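Sequence design from tokenized structure. All designs in this work follow the same two-part layout: the structure record, then the generated sequence. An example of the structure record is given first.
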């Protein structure tokens, strides 16, 4: 059994453990983030935020630069038409890269005020784009441009593809970070990483119930990270939440009922992750200056 995996609840996690070991795919970055898998081209995109680059990785070909400068690109995803959707900390906006390479601005203001620094993004089955907007990119010049918040709060927003209207989806969060929908889209998971700048700050993943119209309702604590803070997260086909912890806890696997059942040990602080590969069973992990991967016994929920 691979030493990369640690079973917290052996009976529940054993099926997800393989003999695979953690592989290093790339190194030398300042802070890696935002992995997204393109199944049709078998390509992984990920970013180095401080260096303002979007990288491309292909098996057997290594890493190349897709876009530089990237406006301090952070979280990325793919929409239902196969287009890249990107959070840009530097320009404080969410953009979409069209199939012809043109860049369309999805959102850069809410009620006339500039966004803080969009961080992570997901696309629902109805085509709506949901993203978190903490203030990390405006706190310093390292991952964006230092500035005061115009909105005065850190929220989660929803962009409607039919009306192009940006609405407030979730509020009352300290520093909303990674987010993901449950497999059946009955819930929205949002990581709050407020403890990064306040020892007494938030360090939990919240679960919002979605009503029949897809609007977030009741909020509850799904899981509280003990040592670090939750950042990027993904959901597998069994409903488990796989999350980073930006600490020495590596990648954590949390069952649908909120129990921590297993862990993957990673030698760097993990910022984000995504499932990919031909079978969607390969977990790609951005961790500080390095990019890793490991094969698991589950599959990620397909984006497209």
């Amino acid at each position: 059994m691979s030493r990369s995996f640690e079973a917290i609840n052996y009976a529940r996690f054993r099926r997800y453990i393989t003999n695979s070991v953690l592989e290093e795919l790339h190194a030398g970055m300042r802070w890696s983030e935002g992995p997204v898998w393109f199944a049709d081209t078998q390509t992984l995109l990920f970013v180095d935020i401080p260096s303002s680059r979007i990288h491309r990785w292909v098996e057997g070909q290594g890493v190349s630069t897709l876009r530089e400068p990237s406006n301090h690109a952070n979280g990325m995803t793919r929409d239902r038409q196969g287009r890249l959707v990107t959070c840009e900390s530097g320009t404080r906006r969410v953009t979409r890269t069209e199939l012809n390479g043109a860049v369309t601005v999805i959102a850069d203001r809410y009620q006339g005020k500039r966004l803080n620094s969009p961080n992570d993004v997901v696309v629902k089955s109805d085509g709506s784009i949901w993203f978190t907007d903490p203030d990390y990119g405006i706190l310093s010049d390292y991952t964006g441009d230092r500035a005061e918040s115009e909105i005065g709060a850190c929220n989660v927003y929803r962009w409607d593809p039919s009306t192009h209207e940006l609405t407030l989806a979730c509020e009352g969060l300290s520093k909303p970070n990674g987010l993901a929908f449950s497999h059946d889209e009955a819930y929205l998971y949002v990581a709050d990483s407020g403890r990064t700048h306040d020892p007494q700050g938030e360090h939990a993943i919240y679960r919002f119930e979605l009503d029949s119209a897809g609007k977030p309702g009741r909020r509850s604590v799904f899981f509280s990270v003990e040592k670090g803070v939750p950042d990027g997260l993904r959901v597998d086909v069994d409903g488990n939440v796989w999350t980073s912890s930006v600490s020495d806890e590596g990648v954590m696997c949390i069952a649908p009922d909120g129990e921590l059942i297993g862990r993957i040990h990673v030698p760097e602080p993990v910022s984000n992750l995504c499932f990919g590969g031909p079978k969607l069973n390969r977990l790609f992990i951005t961790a500080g200056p390095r990019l890793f991967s490991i094969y698991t016994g589950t599959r990620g929920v397909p984006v497209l």
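The domain at 5-295 is CATH 2.120.10.30 (Neuraminidase). We note this feature because it recurs in several other targets discussed in the main text.
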